Amino acid sequence: MSDSEDPEASATIEARLREQEYFRPPTKFVGQANATDPAIHDELDEFPDGFERYAELLDWDESWDQTFDGSNPPFFEWFVGGKLNASYNCVDRHLEERKNQTALLWEGTDGEQENITYQDLYRRVNEMAAALRAQGVEEDDVVTVHLPMVPALPITMLACARIGAPHSVVFAGFSAQALAERVDSAQSDYIVTIDGYYRRGDFLEHIEKTDDALKQTDRDPTVLQWNRHDEAKADVDDDYVEVDSLLEEHALETVEPVSRDAEDPLFLMYTSGTTGKPKGCQHRTGGYLAYAAATSKNVLDIKPEDTYWCAADIGWITGHSYIVYGPLALGTTSVMYEDTPDHPHKGRIWEIAEKYDVDIFHTSPTAVRMFMKWGEEYPESYDFDFRHMTTVGEPIQPEAWLWYYKHIGDEDAVIVDTWWQTETGGHLITNLPALDDMKPGSAGKPAPGIKPALVDDQGEKLPEASGQAGNLIIERPWPSMLQTVYGNDERFISTYWEDFSDTDSDDWTDWNYKAGDGAVQAQDGYWRILGRLDDVMNVAGHRLGTMELESAVSEVEAVAEAAVAPRKDAEKGEVPDVYVILREGVERSDAVKADIVGAVEEEIGKFARPANVIFVDELPKTRSGKIMRRLLEEISNGEELGDTTTLRDPSVPEQIREQIHGD
Ligand code: WTA
User: Fold this and answer.
1) Residues 566, 514, 267, 86: is their CA dihedral positive or negative?
2) 546-661, which class in CATH?
3) Closest by alpha carbon to 212, among 228, 193, 197, 230?
4) What family name appears in the similarity comment (predicted)?
5) Fewer CB within 10 Å: C terminus or N terminus of the chain?
6) In angstroms, what is the C-alpha Rg of the chain?
7) Which of 619, 597, 626, 621 is CA-nearest to residue 609?
8) Which tens digit of pLDDT belongs to each residue from 424-481?
9) Which of 418, 526, 543 to mutate to test the pocket of ligand 1 (most atoms within 8 A of CB)?
10) How much is the mean pLDDT over the chain?
């Protein structure tokens, strides 16, 4: 970290940085990077064989016969006939060379610490795998995992992978109801949870969510309960099975990793879409792991000797691919942190970076904006030196990028802005850090082998590098793409393929994956992501469906109708504004607002809490009765109103605007 500079010099540097469009990766970075040969792009362009390079990063029990099978679009298959085990690849195969190296470096609240070596991880994953089996978990059973950022989470995931049971991790911040919904949707007979964990230093009873979820599901799942300390701190149901005693029973047992077909599912990850129900994105074993490992190597530049820290939550896809599977497949040391960045002080992240001498740091633009608001004095008080930094999840504004570059990276680290999705399994648009110059605000070039394109709403392709905005599609399959929406192939097709593919064709080249994002490709070939074009919002990097929020709000008695619109927010990117029509005779009151906020917390989780609840008389609707959320979004943002001619009553948006902003 640079020492405090004199303010005048600092202002000059900032002015210079602002004018600069491209930033070269530092020579010392390039000199040591994993991917330094531009030929990687040509090699991966050999479709599909180029992707074999990725699969070769893994250990296979049996090699594949066919790299790609596109005969039944859009159900593409990768590394067909190959067999492997993900837990073996992330754990066992590293024992020979680095069993005493730390695999997971866990930092708990208030400085508690665990160094889990690859040998420890091997033991613990095996014991957990034995415990799960003893509880009846069989190959292909979906295990729902509702755990926070504690070692139990990756251990449980890898134990599931070892016995071939797909895990479905539900972010710990999700409510009981959201948990129940995912248990039902995945037809899961197992929930793995924990008594509690720490948030801002306070013990949070987590197991209650499972208690409540069980009341809401028709299923009767077995509950396996970890304890955050030696003994449960919460009031725990007698029917739950304590993991600690199971582990004691199975101490030092080993479980042969189950050899899985490359196409067997490794996990489900539920994500928000355009309907009220989240979709279970199903990821395959071989293609997913190969792509996560290869991008961890080429994009994140991870080497086994690095200390790598992705400050995301494992409960989201970023944590799956880039805290657990990718980094551990490469045999590196991956840091996990339990609590929030501001506890017990706003320098906590940098304190941890210094303590562990972190080399590679990965975070979200929301976090960068927050650090920026807190001020550079926090990072400046600690001695750390990143060589590589990543952002993910939302567009990063050049201003925040520059701050990150200067104050966190000391103008001496590369930054990669990685665009991808739960569905894509790994990075799709991102620079390879040693090969491309950085351009603030832009996700960069396509990853090797990836073919993005832009189409207009009619599906006509826009010219390349035209600077025009369009719908982002991916024209060619890639190994870590979702296999389907769990149990719902139709929804898989209608959500991702129907709009921009020739669905009658059985030639895979006629099929295009629809990302749901808008994007622009500038003349220099760099891509800028503009954000979601569908009813999905991005709140502090968390993906939320407006329909999910609306269905939660509609549960409130007093509510007749509700519509949710994203409002731009300087820190969180977007926040949800809820527009509500109350039932006849119900008074507009703070109590009703509180009920509405409470309903969202209950059905989804606190992280989805609405920013504003606005009572209105009418909602802007088309003649066919469809709510035009776009107009509400424009009102929320104080923007010019777009076309209102299709509205049944074109005066409605103006009325709402006057009510909110006055006139
Ligand atoms: C957005 C997170 C701009 C995008 C990995 C996408 C981004 C959604 C970026 C997926 C980025 C992700 N720049 N926007 N670098 N990365 N997004 O499924 O709208 O939680 O569709 O996956 O986040 O969110 P998800």
Assistant:
1) negative
2) alpha beta
3) 193
4) Belongs to the ATP-dependent AMP-binding enzyme family.
5) C
6) 24
7) 597
8) 999 999 999 999 999 999 999 999 999 999 999 999 999 999 999 999 999 999 999 9
9) 543
10) 95
Spell out the domain ranges in the chain: 27-449+485-494, 546-661
Q: Answer yes or no: CATH 3.40.50.12780 is held by domain 27-449+485-494.
A: yes
For the segment 347-365, the average pLDDT, to the nearest whole number, is 97
- Ligand 1 atom with the smallest distance to the CA of 516 is 21
Strand order in the sheet with 265-271: 241-242, 222-226, 190-194, 143-145, 167-169, 265-271, 279-284, 484-485
Average pLDDT rounded to a whole number, residues 353-370: 96
CA–CA separation, 108 vs 201, rounded Å?
10
Quickly tell me which residue has 């007698």 as its tokens: 238
* Sequence-separated (6 or more) residues with CB below 8 Å from residue 399: none
474: which DSSP letter?
E
pLDDT per residue as tens digits for the range 589-602:
999 999 999 999 99
- Phi first, then psi, for residue 531 (nearest 5°) are 120, 180
Q: How many CB atoms lie within 10 A of CB 459?
A: 14
Cα–Cα distances in Å, from 30 out to 36, 294, 441, 629?
7, 18, 22, 46
Distance CA 358, CA 67 (A): 36
φ, ψ dihedrals at 68, nearest 5°: -145, 135
pLDDT at site 16: 73
442 CA distance to ligand 1 middle (Å) = 13
Element of type H or E holding 43: helix 39-45
Residue with tokens 């298959």: 77
Q: Give the binding-site residues of ligand 1, using a 6 Å CB cut-off.
A: 271, 316-318, 392-395, 417-422, 443, 515-517, 529, 531-532, 538, 543
List pLDDT tens digits, range 483-523: 999 999 999 999 999 999 999 999 999 999 999 999 999 99
Nearest CA to ligand 1 atom 22: 421
Q: 85-100 in b/e burial notation, b at 16+ Cβ within 10 A?
A: bbbbbbbbebeeebee
What residue owns the CA closest to ligand 1's atom 23?
393
Whether the per-residue pLDDT at 537 is higher than 70: the answer is yes
Among protein residues, the one with the nearest Cα to ligand 1's atom 14 is 394
